[in-house]
Protein: Dihydrolipoyl dehydrogenase
Amino acid sequence: ATDHTRYDLVVIGGGPGGYSAAFRAADTGLRTAIVERYGTLGGVCLNVGCIPSKALLHVAAVREEAERIADMGIRFGAPQIDLQALRTFKDGTVTRLTDGLNQMAAARRVTVIRGTAKFVSATRLEVAGEGASSQQIDFGQCIIATGSRAVQLAVLPKDGRIVTSTGALSLRSIPGRMLVIGAGIIGLEMATVYSALGAKIDLVERLSDILAGVDADAVKIWRSRNAHRFEHIDLDSSVSTAAVTPDGVTVAITGASVETRSYDLVLQSAGRVPNSGELGLERIGVAIDPNGFIQVDEQMRTTARNVFAIGDVVGGSMLAHKAVHEGHVAAEVAAGKPAAFTAKIVPNVAYTDPEIAWVGKSVRDVAESGGKIRSAKFPWAASGRAIASGASYGLTKLLFDVETGRIVGGVIVGPHAGDMIGEICLAIEMGADAIDIGKTIHPHPTLGETIGMAAEVHEGICTDLP
Ligand code: FAD
Structure:
């Protein structure tokens, strides 16, 4: 390769993990390139994930809130939904961010190469561009940040009415009846959007509850607040057959019995798999686990010494903020700095209505590991701000290790739960106990105050400040 196609560091994939790694590497002085097969940076998160979904969820939440405040004295007429304008708002949100990334890449002199990368050797990539064009790029070190894609269920035929989250976010039309397969975060967020736009939703989930593993009190609140969205919720059930007809998609759902129903749109949100298969990893000795996730150590190094991997393609929490942190670690290690991924916890948020945010250990985790935990609940029915905002159904719950007294987990249900969970993350990372949190003065009246109050509940010193 000629001089200008050699980089100190090449990052494969321009998602949150990849661009964060590339920017950090460039900031430390490494000559850096990103190879991205799509036309824009930002990966799944900015283009077809976190950001467009949040744009639509914002609109959905406002539309439903407008209805709810009828009881508080303001009534609006029936909503008129302009799908084209909604798509324009969503797409504009995405474009603003992806354009910003291009500027940030240019400002740092990070070269963005458009194409699909594959390893030729442990120091060389082949990048296939449009048509038959291809180029070779040499690197000193490489970070694999190729992300993940939605599982395609074998039972579902190929048809425009059977989509993954990407198809659902394109918002082609509002279906009369929609089936959501998989009651994880993505499935529930999409169900929220389409239900707010007027679709009747059915939900099918292989496991015995929605948001498997999440605190039972939180899930109970979510289910009672969202019961109106769903005609059927089939738990312990899965789609056993599906056929496409001119009128829709006919699906058999098998659980305790078999139900056959017809839908205008079917969303498969049954998990995501890593994009590791087409990279030629076997050629350079990068090991993957049985599910295809690339194996890494805490410096994000793969089994090939000069190759790192980060983000969804290494598994664990498949979330953008985890990818970003891992990207920073890999870039710093590549630059010779003493970095490692040492985060104790990664927070999760379902940006539904209400939001649920959770982090750290759950009651079940602790029970399974034989530890002792005390939970401190603060129901929002005792929060002045929650009552004044129509959110008295909310809950803040903190979990403390009985032996050490330290906080080990937390869950929040209600508006802005995702914005508030960061405080619990900080408390866990810093090894705070209930007194640290309870004696920290939180502003009144706020929803965040419920965190301080939950800690005081734990200490048995809860004030009666409403
Ligand atoms: P990705 O974002 O998947 O990026 C990988 C990039 O690599 C892609 O752009 C891909 O085109 C490129 N690529 C792959 N292979 C090659 C190759 N061989 N050559 C060149 N380029 C390649 N996470 C959150 O934290 N919060 C949320 O609210 C949230 N909402 C989500 C909503 C939806 C609908 C979905 C699907 C996901 C959501 N996520 C959310 C998850 C989040 O999108 C991912 O965790 C995040 O994008 C992972 O980042 P990444 O950098 O690992 O990979």
Observations:
- The radius of gyration is 24 Å.
- The first helix runs from residue 16 to 27.
- Residues 46 and 408 are 31 Å apart (CA to CA).
